Automatic annotation (TrEMBL):
Family assignment from sequence similarity: Belongs to the FPP/GGPP synthase family.
InterPro entries with a match to the protein in the record: Isoprenoid_synthase_dom_sf, Polyprenyl_synt, Polyprenyl_synt_CS, Prenyl_diphosphate_synthase
Top-level taxon of the source organism: Bacteria
BP-aspect Gene Ontology terms: terpenoid biosynthetic process
Protein name: Polyprenyl synthetase family protein
SUPFAM superfamilies: Terpenoid synthases
A Pfam family of this chain: polyprenyl_synt
Length: 307
């Protein structure tokens, strides 16, 4: 029996909130399928993996995957795989970041962090296992183009490692109590936060028809600005929103003497920088015309978020 045709992601008809909620629900359901069942041996580890991943969250990175997929008429089934792989990497990073040897936090997404709910050793294994699962589902999926699929695996791996997210975390740990200038701070967050956001955007576009060199360069410029924008807004929220609103410990960066855009620039200038970064992110999207509608809307969501 022939397989049904792949369905392109349809961005046009739903309002942005409805579209985003639909993507979040689709990704949540897919993550629940990809994660091992809690009763499977080793049960405690599998339960902790599900606890850490299925605990809510805005799923901004998966939504970025779907929004970028619109540019290349990407099939929803392929975007779902990529979105889950990216979210599994993100979830693993949160589990490890919260450990006492890292940021030592006790609250994540309004619940006890993984190492508090379970224990530190289990949390360490949860992060390891989520990372492995991300590459497993990406490698076993059928994208119809093995060379492009290998490029996708390479892109996600680099964004996750020492030249990406892990490297940014290492710089962050070294910078505690140390003054950083703005270029140094931007480099740290381009790796720690921006690398995975950039990967989400590029991976989403790789799920469909090929981009021209000009289009890929424009998308890359957008992704880099969007990643930095996300971090600046995060720094603003860390000092202006409550713990109940954030779902994590508010003011933790300031208490830990971590360099942030607010500590470096002040709150007002950080807000001005966020507005500038939003505009810088939107400029290259003009290359895609109406196809970039969801990315434009998502950029505004990132800029205006209050939680």
């Amino acid at each position: 029996m022939s397989q049904p045709p792949l369905r392109p992601a349809d961005p046009v008809r739903p309002s942005f909130p409805d579209w985003m909620q639909g993507v979040q629900a689709q990704v949540d359901a897919a993550l629940a399928r990809y994660l091992p069942p809690g009763e499977a041996i080793p049960g405690r580890l599998h339960q902790a993996m599900r606890y850490a991943t299925l605990s809510g969250g805005k799923r901004v990175r998966p939504v970025l995957v779907f929004a970028a997929g619109v540019l290349t008429d990407s099939a929803s089934e392929r975007l779902e795989v990529v979105a889950c792989a990216v979210e599994l990497i993100h979830s693993y990073s949160l589990v490890h970041d919260d450990l006492p040897c890292m940021d030592d936090d006790v609250l994540r997404r309004g619940r006890p962090t993984c190492h508090v709910e379970y224990d530190q050793a289990t949390a360490l294994l949860v992060g390891d296992s989520l990372q492995s699962l991300a590459f497993e589902i990406l490698a076993r999926a059928d994208f119809g183009d093995s060379r492009r699929q290998l490029e996708m695996v390479r892109l996600l791996a680099r964004a996750s490692g020492s030249c990406g997210m892990a490297g940014g975390q290492a710089i962050d740990l070294e910078a505690v109590g140390q003054p950083l200038n703005q270029p140094e701070l931007e480099l740290m967050h381009a790796l720690k936060t921006g690398a995975l956001i950039r990967a989400a955007v590029l991976l989403g576009a790789l799920c469909g028809t090929a981009l021209t060199t000009t289009e890929r360069d424009a998308l890359d410029r957008f992704a880099k600005r969007a990643g930095l924008l996300f971090q600046v807004v995060d720094d603003i929220l860390d000092c202006t929103a409550s713990t109940a609103t954030l779902g994590k410990t508010a003011g933790k960066d300031a208490a830990a003497e971590k360099p942030t855009y607010v500590s470096l620039l002040g709150l007002q200038r950080a807000r001005e920088l966020a507005a500038e970064l939003r505009q810088q992110a939107l400029v290259p999207l003009a290359t895609f015309g109406e196809r970039s509608q969801r990315l434009v809307q998502l950029t505004d969501f990132i800029t205006q978020r209050r939680f």
